[in-house]
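C-alpha cells for chain A. Residues wanted.
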C-alpha cells in the first residue's frame, strides 16, 4: 500500500475552500485504492477523492481522508472501430485530448478550460455549450469504480437507474478508477467572436443556438453589450507553434493582463466597476480563431474569480436575461465580469441540473478579493423564480429542502448510493447537509 501524507493543506483553485485532511493518499494501483477505502470504512472516517480542485463549492473538500489519482493517469485501451477510449480517472483533460487526437478521435464537446481531471469533470457534469450536445458525463459509456465496500465494480451505460446515478454522482458511489468515453472523429473548429447589442443578440438567439454547433454569450452587466461567440466545425487545421504563441501573447497574456488591471482597479475602488465594465464592453474585439477543437474551446484563466452557475429551462432564457439586464441597469452591483450564457441538450442523470430539458446555463463571476455576497445572493434568489438548478461544482446556496424540490429522483439516487456505500465512506458533512433523505 502507498504511504499517505499526513496533515497536508488542501485548497481549491479559487482558494475559497480550504482543508487540512488527516491523511492524503496517492494510490499507485487499484488494490491501493481498495486498501484505502477498506481502511477508511474500518476506521469509520470519510474519504473524498480530489481531482484538480477546480470546483468552487466544497464538494471536493476532504474532511478526514483525501485521495488523489495523480498516479493513475493516461490511456488504458481504445477501440477505434467503436470509437471508445478508456482513460484512468486521474487523467487531466489537457492530457486526454492529445491522447485521443493521436488515435484520430476527439471529445464531442468541452468546457472553457482543460485543467480538470476526467473523473472530476464527469462527476460534476462539466459542460460546454451546444444545444444538441450534452455534458462530459453524457459522453461516458462505461465506468469502473471501487465502491464503499472496497469492491471493484464495472457498469456499461444503458437506460437503467444505475447509469442515471453514475452519470453525475459527485463521488458519492465510490472512487472512479476509469471511464470509457464515446469519442467522435477528430475535428477542428472555427470560432467567430463579435460585439452585439442585447436587442440584436436576442433577436438572433433562437436561430443562433440551432444554426451553430456552439453558441455562447458574454453579457456585460448593466450595459447593452453582448460578446457573441459562434463556433462550428471546419476542415482539419492544427495551429502552428507560431500562431499558438501569437495567440497566447494576445489572448493569454495581453487580454488577461489588461483584465487583471481592470479587476485590480475594481477591487481597490469597487464604485468604478460600472465605468470599467462599460470600457471593457466597448473594447470587445471582433475576431476569429481556428484550430483543433482542444485549441479552440479552452482559454487560459489567469485572473482568479469565484463563480456561481445555474441551469434554467431553455424557453425561459430570453425572459431571464431581460430581467437580469433590467435589474442590473437600475441597481448596479460592484461587478465587472461578464455573465456567461451557454446551452446544452437535456440529460437523464438523476442529478443532472438539466432534468431532461434543453437548458440554458448562466454563469456569474466575481473577481477574487471582491465581495461576491450581495451579487450572488441576488442571483440565488432570482434563479428560484426560473426553477434554476445550480452547477454542483460552483458556489450555491443549496439546502436539503431545495434539493428535494429540484430533484424528484433524489430518493432513488440515495437508495443506489446506500447500496454501493452502506457505511457512508464517501459522505462528508457538507454532502450530508444537502443530500440526506
Ligand atoms: C477556471 C474554471 C473554469 C471552469 N469552467 C467550467 C466549464 O466551462 N464548464 C463547467 O461545467 N464547469 C467548469 N468549471 C467547473 C469544473 O469543471 C468542475 O468543478 C469540475 O468538477 C472540476 O474538476 P476537478 O478535476 O477539478 O474535480 P474536483 O473539483 O477536484 O472534484 C469534483 C468532484 O468530483 C469528485 N471526484 C474527483 N475525482 C474523482 C474520482 N476519481 N472518483 C470519484 N469522484 C471523484 C470529487 O470528490 C468532487 O465531488 C470551471 C472551473 C474553473 C475553476
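Reply:
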Amino acid at each position: 500500500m502507498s504511504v499517505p501524507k499526513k496533515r497536508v493543506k488542501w485548497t481549491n483553485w479559487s482558494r475559497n475552500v480550504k482543508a487540512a485532511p488527516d491523511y492524503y493518499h496517492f494510490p499507485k494501483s487499484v488494490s491501493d485504492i481498495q486498501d484505502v477505502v477498506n481502511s477508511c470504512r474500518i476506521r469509520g472516517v470519510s474519504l473524498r477523492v480530489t481531482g484538480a480542485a477546480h470546483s468552487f463549492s466544497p464538494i471536493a473538500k476532504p474532511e478526514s481522508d483525501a485521495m488523489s489519482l495523480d498516479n493513475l493517469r493516461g490511456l488504458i485501451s481504445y477501440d477505434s472501430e467503436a470509437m471508445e477510449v478508456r482513460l484512468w480517472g486521474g487523467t487531466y483533460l489537457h492530457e486526454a485530448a492529445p491522447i485521443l487526437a493521436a488515435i484520430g478521435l476527439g471529445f464531442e464537446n468541452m468546457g472553457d478550460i482543460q485543467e480538470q481531471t476526467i473523473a472530476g469533470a464527469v462527476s460534476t457534469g462539466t459542460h460546454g455549450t451546444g444545444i444538441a450536445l450534452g455534458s462530459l458525463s453524457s459522453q461516458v459509456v462505461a465506468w469502473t469504480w471501487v465502491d464503499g465496500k472496497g469492491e471493484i465494480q464495472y457498469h456499461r451505460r444503458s437506460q437503467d437507474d444505475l447509469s442515471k446515478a453514475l452519470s453525475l454522482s459527485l463521488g458519492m458511489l465510490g472512487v472512479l478508477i476509469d471511464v470509457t468515453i464515446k469519442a467522435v472523429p477528430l475535428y477542428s473548429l472555427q470560432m467567430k467572436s463579435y460585439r452585439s447589442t442585447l436587442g440584436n443578440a436576442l433577436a438572433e438567439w433562437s436561430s443562433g443556438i440551432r444554426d451553430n454547433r456552439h453558441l455562447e454569450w458574454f453579457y456585460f452587466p448593466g450595459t447593452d453589450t453582448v460578446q457573441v461567440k459562434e463556433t462550428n466545425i471546419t476542415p482539419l487545421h492544427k495551429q502552428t507553434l507560431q500562431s499558438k504563441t501569437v495567440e497566447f501573447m494576445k489572448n493569454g497574456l495581453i487580454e488577461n493582463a489588461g483584465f487583471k488591471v481592470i479587476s485590480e482597479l475594481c477591487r481597490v475602488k469597487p464604485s468604478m466597476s460600472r465605468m470599467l465594465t462599460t470600457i471593457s464592453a466597448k473594447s470587445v474585439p471582433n475576431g476569429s480563431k481556428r484550430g483543433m477543437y482542444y485549441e479552440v474551446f479552452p482559454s487560459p484563466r489567469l485572473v482568479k474569480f469565484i463563480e456561481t452557475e445555474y441551469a434554467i429551462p431553455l424557453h425561459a432564457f430570453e425572459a431571464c436575461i431581460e430581467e437580469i439586464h433590467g435589474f442590473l441597469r437600475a441597481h448596479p452591483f460592484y461587478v465587472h465580469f461578464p455573465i456567461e450564457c451557454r446551452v446544452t441538450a437535456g440529460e437523464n442523470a438523476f442529478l443532472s441540473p438539466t432534468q431532461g430539458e434543453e437548458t440554458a446555463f448562466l454563469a456569474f463571476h466575481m473577481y477574487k478579493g471582491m465581495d461576491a455576497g450581495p451579487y450572488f445572493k441576488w442571483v440565488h434568489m432570482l434563479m428560484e423564480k426560473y426553477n434554476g438548478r445550480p452547477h454542483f461544482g460552483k458556489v450555491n446556496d443549496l439546502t436539503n429542502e431545495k434539493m428535494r424540490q429540484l430533484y424528484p429522483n433524489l430518493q432513488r439516487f440515495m437508495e443506489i448510493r446506500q447500496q454501493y456505500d452502506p457505511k457512508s465512506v464517501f459522505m462528508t458533512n457538507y454532502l450530508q447537509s444537502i443530500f440526506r433523505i
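The first helix runs from residue 30 to 43. The chain has a mean pLDDT of 95.
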